[in-house]
Amino acid sequence: MEDVRVYGDFHRVNQEMFDKIKDICPFEQVAYDGDVLRVDHEGKYILIDDFIEAVRDLLPENGYGHVEFIDQLDWTVTRYTIKPGKIEEKLIHVDNVLDAHQHEHGL
Hints:
The protein is of the alpha+beta class. The chain is built from 3 helices and 6 strands; from the N terminus they run βαββαβββα.
């Protein structure tokens, strides 16, 4: 079993920004289409803090991103919401993911 699964997408990423962050990107799979950067990793634990902090610092005013960090050993999901100058982090136990989503959206 993999230790972690990590999925993310970042929107409004221009070529200049991508060039600045691609060398510190810890993800195995990277897809960039000129506006949206998608990242993916399944396997051993990786450090993503430096990467998402760099993205935060380089995002344009209308940029945003999300990362789901699923720790399969601790059975938790950390949801990161990245906006220019800001990272919000929310830790949820996997057994409570659906409840947290419903509560967040008033369901």
